[in-house]
């Protein structure tokens, strides 16, 4: 499966922002400490999240990051795709003429893995950032 730490950490950091939204802007240093994610790695992730308008930065002494839109409007798939991630079980390109493993046809399990891709991506499409916040508040 091809979901790296970048995608997982992006979701963790966004959940941290959503959970602490009432506090105001949150610094990456705070997220780094709470979530045990490298500050340099968070900076790379937040550049991409900001580009996709999922977060915005607030300057000043009490500056940091806030969500660009409500957590109820942000799907996990938005976050994962924002950091250039995709969840794929297939190593071949879906519409490739070469098929799987550079053969002229698809491998025997191609459709199985393709269906799993669709299921996983559909799962991330259904879950909103707010859902994660609610789950965390119940613990």
Report what the structure shows.
Helices cover 50% and strands 6% of the residues. The protein is elongated and about 60 Å long. The protein is mainly alpha-helical. It has a two-stranded antiparallel ribbon. The longest helix is centred in the last third of the chain and has 17 residues. The protein has a domain of 96 residues: Winged helix-like DNA-binding domain superfamily/Winged helix DNA-binding domain (Arc Repressor Mutant, subunit A). It contains six helices and two strands. Helix 1 crosses helix 3, helix 1 crosses helix 4 and helix 1 crosses helix 6.
Residue stretches low in confidence (pLDDT < 50, at least 5 long) are none
Supply the CATH class of the domain at 5-90 and 128-137: Mainly Alpha
Oligomeric category: single chain
Shape designation: elongated
């Amino acid at each position: 499966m091809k979901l790296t730490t970048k995608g997982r950490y992006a979701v963790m950091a966004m959940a941290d922002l959503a959970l602490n939204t009432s506090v105001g802007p949150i610094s990456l240093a705070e997220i780094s400490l709470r979530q045990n994610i490298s500050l340099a790695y968070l900076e790379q992730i937040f550049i991409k999240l900001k580009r996709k308008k999922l977060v915005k930065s607030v300057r000043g002494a009490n500056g940091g990051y806030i969500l660009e839109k409500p957590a109820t409007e942000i799907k996990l798939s938005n976050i994962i795709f924002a950091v250039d991630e995709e969840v794929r079980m297939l190593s071949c390109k879906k519409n490739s003429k070469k098929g799987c493993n550079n053969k002229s046809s698809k491998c025997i399990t191609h459709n199985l893995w393709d269906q799993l891709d669709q299921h996983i991506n559909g799962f991330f499409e259904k879950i909103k950032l707010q859902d994660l916040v609610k789950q965390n508040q119940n613990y």
